[in-house]
Design brief:
Shape: globular
Radius of gyration: 22 Å
Strand content: under 5%
Number of strands: 2
Keywords: Membrane, Transmembrane, Transmembrane helix
GO molecular function: transmembrane transporter activity
Distance between the termini: 37 Å
Family: Belongs to the major facilitator superfamily. Monocarboxylate porter (TC 2.A.1.13) family.
Strand order of the largest sheet: 1-2
Protein name: Major facilitator superfamily (MFS) profile domain-containing protein
Number of helices: 18
Membrane topology: Multi-pass membrane protein
Helix content: over 70%
Largest sheet: 2 strands, antiparallel
């Protein structure tokens, strides 16, 4: 007899937990026994679960895609307001800082209220941000609208999405998060082309309104599709098994050696990984690559990251998420070092592909590793948010640090040596966390 379902989740009314051939014992199976550990199955597939993934993809295409395309806005603002790059860059830096830092508040809010209320609030803030930009004429107005409001709106969209997807998947969590995050890469490829056409054909005000007209419907649809599971996961681990009361406290969720080690590793990795995306075009131009092709290197890198996010997520589900995160962190470091020897267009393309492919999986696999080591899924949002808040230190520090190196040396090698070194340091911390956490080959 087919089991009843509610919103795509199978509910077994015959037993409080699935009975496997290894554990079946009809004489001891008693649904009324309150002392038996309670098990909540994780779907890992099904229409409802994959709709959440599709909604997350749309979300990231519209929100993160625009974040990744800030360079297009930056060029327009420099021309229209006659401001130097060092000034306009603060808008993009504030976006990313608010996105990362807000996790410490938005993550726990997901644990309490779920996804939809937060995502609708984020969509509204994104709408207000772009409408405000359409009326803005001064730098501080763009800083508040696109830097602060849009960054906060993206935070209210990002954390509920990654947390909700993690609730629906266990064995396929790496693949699911990789598919969702590939939306950011897709947006990073498509939005610059759309925005360049808009800025050429229309004024800045109309461009911001048209951008909102495209992005907001996508975000509203994602609000409908993305949702947390109706089954309450608080008090259960990532596989749906009931955990001891000592594992469910907030202090245990935060002051956990594995979690703090993982967060510290990602702080270093993000410090080194984010910066090369800002410098690739300028570095290529200084080596004789024309302006158009040097800007296209970013699109090439984002295309590779789209493939990398999906592929590394799928492989991680088979060889272990920590193992895969360590591997791609090392590859990202080596790819960063390799830019030092890039002198021709061919080598720039090759290294951009390698860097994009290897770095693409870091964000989704970082969240997957947090979920994997979360003792109580009721604190998943809190832990992902806290991890991102800790990582924000590296994200914020990377730009000024490399800028200071470039200013002091008046050369590029020091920039890429610094980025490669701190990324490799993060990979080293990950190795230590992985060894201490679990001795199994696949982890």
């Amino acid at each position: 007899m087919a089991l009843p379902t509610i919103s795509g989740e199978t509910l077994d009314i015959r037993s409080p937990r699935p009975i496997s051939p290894d554990s079946a014992d009809l004489s001891s199976s008693n649904p009324c026994n309150e002392h038996e550990p309670h098990h909540i199955g994780v779907p890992d597939s099904g229409r409802r679960a994959w709709l959440v993934v599709f909604g997350g993809f749309l979300n990231f295409t519209a929100s993160f895609g625009l974040l990744n395309s800030f360079g297009t806005f930056e060029a327009q603002y420099e021309r229209s307001m006659q401001l130097p790059t060092s000034t306009v860059t603060w808008i993009g830096s504030l976006q990313m800082f608010i996105l990362f830092l807000s996790g410490i508040l938005v993550g726990p809010a997901f644990d309490k209220w779920g996804a939809r209320k937060l995502m609708l609030s984020g969509t509204f803030l994104c709408l207000v941000a772009f409408i405000s930009c359409s009326f803005a004429t001064r730098f501080y107005q763009f800083l508040l609208a696109q830097g602060f409001l849009f960054g906060l709106g993206c935070a209210l969209l990002f954390y509920p999405t990654t947390s909700a997807v993690s609730e629906w998947f266990d064995k396929r969590r790496g693949l699911a998060l990789g598919l969702v995050c590939s939306g950011a890469s897709a947006g990073g490829i498509l939005w610059p082309m759309v925005l360049n056409e808009f800025f050429m054909d229309f004024n800045g005000a109309k461009t911001h309104r048209l951008t909102a007209a495209i992005a907001i419907p996508m975000l509203l649809l994602s609000c409908v599709l993305v949702r947390e599971r109706h089954v309450r996961l608080a008090g259960h681990d990532m596989a749906g098994n009931e955990v001891k009361a000592s594992q469910t406290s907030i202090s245990k969720a935060i002051w956990d050696t594995r979690f703090l080690g993982l967060s510290s590793a990602l702080l270093f990795i993000n410090c080194g990984m984010m910066v090369p995306f800002f410098y690739i075009p300028g570095y290529a131009q200084d080596n004789g690559v024309d302006t158009t092709m040097s800007n296209n290197l970013l699109a090439i890198s984002y295309s590779a990251s789209l493939v990398g996010r999906i592929f590394t997520g799928w492989v991680a589900d088979h060889i272990g998420r920590f193992n895969m995160l360590i591997l791609i962190s090392i590859l990202t470091s080596l790819a960063t070092f390799s830019f030092i020897s890039a002198k021709t267009l061919t080598t720039f393309i090759a290294f951009s592909v390698l860097f994009g492919f290897s770095s693409g999986g870091i964000v989704p696999l970082g969240s997957a590793c947090v979920a994997q080591t979360t003792p109580d899924m009721g604190h998943l949002g809190l832990r992902i948010g806290t991890m991102m808040a800790i990582s924000s230190i590296g994200t914020l520090a990377g730009g000024p640090a490399t800028g200071a190196i470039k200013g002091a040396t008046h050369a590029w090698p020091g920039v890429f040596i610094f980025c490669g070194a701190v990324t490799m340091a993060g990979a080293g911390i990950l190795c230590a966390v992985r060894v201490v956490s679990n001795k199994r080959l696949v982890f």
